[in-house]
Amino acid sequence: MKQIILGTILLLNISLTLNAQEEDKMMKAFFDEALTDQTAFENLRYLCKNCNGRITGSSQAAAAVEFTFQVMNNMNLDKVYKQPVQVPYWIRGEEETASIQSCKFGFKAVPVSALGMSVGTGEDGLSAKVIEVHNFAELEKLGRENIEGKIVFFNRAMDPTMLNTFGAYGGAADQRTEGAARAGAFGAAGVVARSLTTSQDNFPHTGVMRYNDTISKIPAVAISTNGANLLSKWLKNDSELNFFFRTTSYELPEVTSYNVIGEIKGSEFPDQIITVGGHLDSWEPGEGAHDDGAGCMQSIEVLRLFQKMGIQPKRTIRAVMFMDEEVAQRGGDEYARQAGLKNENHYFALEADRGALMPKGFGISAPDERLEKILALKKYFEPYGITYFKKGGGGVDIGPLKQFQTPLSSYIPEMQRYFDFHHSGNDTFEQVNFREFQMGSAAIASFIYLIDKHDL
Amino acid sequence: MKQIILGTILLLNISLTLNAQEEDKMMKAFFDEALTDQTAFENLRYLCKNCNGRITGSSQAAAAVEFTFQVMNNMNLDKVYKQPVQVPYWIRGEEETASIQSCKFGFKAVPVSALGMSVGTGEDGLSAKVIEVHNFAELEKLGRENIEGKIVFFNRAMDPTMLNTFGAYGGAADQRTEGAARAGAFGAAGVVARSLTTSQDNFPHTGVMRYNDTISKIPAVAISTNGANLLSKWLKNDSELNFFFRTTSYELPEVTSYNVIGEIKGSEFPDQIITVGGHLDSWEPGEGAHDDGAGCMQSIEVLRLFQKMGIQPKRTIRAVMFMDEEVAQRGGDEYARQAGLKNENHYFALEADRGALMPKGFGISAPDERLEKILALKKYFEPYGITYFKKGGGGVDIGPLKQFQTPLSSYIPEMQRYFDFHHSGNDTFEQVNFREFQMGSAAIASFIYLIDKHDL
User: Fold this and answer.
1) Contact: A161, B435; criterion CB under 8 Å
2) Residue B213 binned pLDDT confidence (cut-offs 50, 70, 90)
């Protein structure tokens, strides 16, 4: 009896070891293939160069839908389709102009970008005196008598000492998203918001803003950090200077766009769906390379890597190109709504929307027992220097799947450089490194492969 | 008695905890200051933009010596001086031209760069048929009858599946360093070597080569990876094509240059020297931003961070800008020779010469007992995601200090992107991210601070 038990344990150990070897081998194969094959990188190049400025509703966004549909349609997948989504259609208009006009220091043109969904200034632009604030408390203290008719300049920098740059972003983002509504309530004529970037540069970094329906809409722009520093410096010695900006943005009626979806059907549990996605829309005037062409192409690459390795997953793996993450998050909402209508079983979901930098790991939200098992996957990734496996994952696009108790995961790459590119003209294909991008693809493919294989 | 022991243990624990807190606080202060202050980054910008192409012996190298001397001289250090070094003086000459000339496929200009120390082709350039090989074994198998009078095209790529890109570089570098000597032995007319980069791009990546004194010197160039791929493709269907290249490089007599050294004097053990250094010389036509302006400026930043935090180190901390790492490594040799002559006590040395990418950690060569203690410093760095603490450190410049049994250390940043820049026109200031660069400065300062404080 003892010998039988011992034998069983030995066999079990050998089997576990063999399994581990199999998984290590498959991961090595993923990484080797990803670092050798240029398909995903060349597709990203095409998306960036031919569908740049693909803001929700635009013809470039339609071109991106068509391109990614064709890419997946040519891959011999089990199913490729477009899921209709109604999306807002905001038009940036002509290139923005802005300048600081000081009788003391002179005239200086500065780079600005209309915030997404902002109204325009009208043909003649807007010129007014400027009041600088750093938060809403300062704004409220100043009150209507100091604000009315002026341009409010929100100049709070992202905290450079925070190593979690997404945290630093979150700590400064309200001035962009809510600044116009808050300043408008005190009768401000317009808003200039410091760009949300850790870089000292000449790129305005745009992003969405939202009005309050009860307050009249005032135009709002982002100013580059160098421009913001200059404006602040001049203001200190010339509070009477004028700021001028001209934007011609406007909104058109909503249009139909699409999430683009490709699937490999599961062999054992075809009704259990694992979603891997990024978002297809991106801000102008950049190319949406890091945000989020990369996440889209990495998601498609997961399917290609599975095919290339001849892996038949137990569950259905879906690559989803979500539409409209940047403006109204309609793609993610519609994806979950359709999942509910069709009573789909969403087993797991991962969002890749933090750029194409070096993979660090994954954030995961799941019930404790599942979470613990998923976090234990770390050991497979350590040889690749991928060691961030922590609680807390999700994303704007997969977030609505939470209603189905689906475990949600975020792909986490390095983040010190990310805000150099984010929402700016600097977010170009040239800023993506092939190896960092493809190590990300291989890491995501490995993670999904292990989740499926180990029934996590 | 038991109580006394317990009390002592408790006190000891409290003291250790307090110490740990002090060190954690100091590291946080280093990182906060580094991520907020632009001095080092602006000095790097100046070095890159005003002393670009600072190859050993050149006027740009002399300008870099003067600039870094002035920077350190203005820092109120205890000692700043130049240490004379005799260096080779190789001149690249006019911009190189090259083309593939095929009767089948046409004429195509391709980017090449003369290898450092290569002779030129002469005014008229060199045109010859091409034989492609991937290693010296193939070369020897072909023999003189297949090689004589031809251009040997070494086309071995860096292995893209190696995550240690420095290892992949080492695995392909012999064709650049020895290719001309090996091919020359079989009567080749010239050598074209595939650029040592993991990137598919149009930059030739240069670097030093060495002749064998007994064999006649033939001209050698690096060709961009895109150029190499095209040449190889055309050769497969047109073995009769000609390759043309023209280089006008030549050597002048050696000149005097300098290592530039700045010191903070130690308070307890001023005779014990801790060296932190990078190299000042760099290849043309880039700006030597990652290789190795960054390492130089990070070394100076270590001194600035110590000053800013009011740290009086126990030992003398030296920032050393080594001259001539790229060509003949005279700076490192002379630094060690002078150390020997002056009977200096070199307690520890660190070299920063792997670019300004995200800090990963440190490689260390030291006797086992010291090594173990140094590796244990890892715990202080883990909150910063800096977790690479492994045996094996050194570098070309500090290597000669080994004769004094000095423990040697390498600063190890991320390495997937490094060979995009290395030795090419792509190594510009714009490729350096402020945060990655300064997290490196803070990491090195922290490491040196702990080595000194803990007497490691």
Assistant:
1) no
2) confident
Residue from the list A160, A416, A436 with its beta carbon closest to the beta carbon of B433? A416
* Structural domains in chain A, sorted by start: 27-90+253-453 (3.40.630.10), 97-248 (3.50.30.30)
Under an 8 A CB cutoff, do B436 and A420 touch?
A: no
Share of chain B above pLDDT 70, in %: 96
A348-399 per-position pLDDT tens digit? 999 999 999 999 999 999 999 999 999 999 999 999 999 999 999 999 999 9
Tracing tokens 């991520």 back to the chain, one arrives at: B35
What are the residues whose beta carbons fall under 8 Å from the beta carbon of B78, sequence distance 6 or more? B263, B264, B265
B35 contacts on A by Cβ (under 8 Å): 160-161
Q: Where are the alpha helices (DSSP H) in A319-409?
A: 330-341, 368-375, 378-381
Chain B: closest CA distance from residue A165 (Å): 10
B222 within 8 A of B214, measured Cβ to Cβ = no
Q: What is residue A78's three-state secondary structure?
A: coil
Amino acid at B255: V
Alpha-carbon distance A103 to A242, whole Å?
9
Q: Which of B36, B160, B436 has the CB atom closest to A35's CB atom?
A: B160
State the virtual CA torsion across A113, A119, A125, A127 in degrees, nearest 10: -90
pLDDT tens per residue, range B77-132? 999 999 999 999 999 999 999 999 999 999 999 999 999 999 999 999 999 999 99
Q: Which chain A residues are Cβ-neighbours of B384 within 8 angstroms?
A: 163
Q: Is the pLDDT of residue B6 over 80?
A: no
The residue in chain A having the minimum alpha-carbon distance to the alpha carbon of residue B442 is A161
How far is it, in rounded angstroms, from Cα B335 to Cα B322?
8
